Amino acid sequence: MQFIGKARRFSLITITIVAVAIVVGIIFGGLNLGIDFTGGSILTVELHEEFEMEHVNAALEQNGIDPRTAQILRSENTKAVIRMQELPDDMDDAMIRGAIVEYLVQTYPEATSDEVQSVGGATTGEIIQNAFLSVIIAAALMLIYIWIRFELFSGLAAVTALLHDVVIMTAVVCIARIQINSSYIAACLTIVGYSINDTIVVFDRIRENNKKYGASMPRAKVADLSITETLPRTINTSLTTLVTILAVYIFGVQSIKEFALPLIVGLVSGTYSSIFVASPLWVRMLEARHKHRKTKMAQKNKTARKS
Known about the structure:
The protein is α+β, with helices and mostly antiparallel strands and 307 residues long. It has helices spanning 7-28, 35-38, 53-62, 93-105, 121-149, 152-175, 182-213, 219-251, 254-306, and strands at residues 40-46, 70-75, 79-85, 112-119. It has a four-stranded antiparallel β-sheet.
């Protein structure tokens, strides 16, 4: 099967997703950051009975809060944990929280405000910094490992594929207007560790086939052959994992879904990038190096003939 020759065509998928995400981000004012990044408050309401999420959403909408900017969790089946971003200056936090509880009392007569917590800017800044450093450190260590085990271009291609997966995850989350919080960061780091596995398997087969065929087979054909040979393993591994994560997303609670959905996107993107990003990029870098060396050698021979 031919994969390397079709890589540029498939790269349009990535470009389209990122372009749509940029447009959506411009329209809606950027990413939908949760209170882990923006700061805000956490209101816990004890309802003393099992409740419907729709009623909590209605309480937020009634008081001028878009439910998409809040995160509602279920605790002990009878407690609603409402994580709200910082409200505009013209809205009184305490008054809004009280109004939310009063609205819920209409449906749940014993509803009471159980606890209120604030998340400040210092905490959010630390989370952003640690999240950024975590991804950079993970990518750097993987580059060093693959460089030692294979060679530099394999490492660069693999790390580029990882960054591609993170970009796609962020783009899809932006398009879907899903809140980006600590669960999203955990999903990103999970995919960074998972996705590299597929890429290493492909590069390991490429190394074996390089030794087997040597210069008799072009690098593009070696890569195509290696991807074809490892494709059943890649598909089987990804599908079994995907089925499990889909089950978690469908039957899990809201807090689990916010982790599972980015994970699903990253899993699909990781499978795609190991086939259509990492290996084609490796081939292009080697061809570019070969072309550079050939040009340099020609110039050197030309200079020698003149002298």
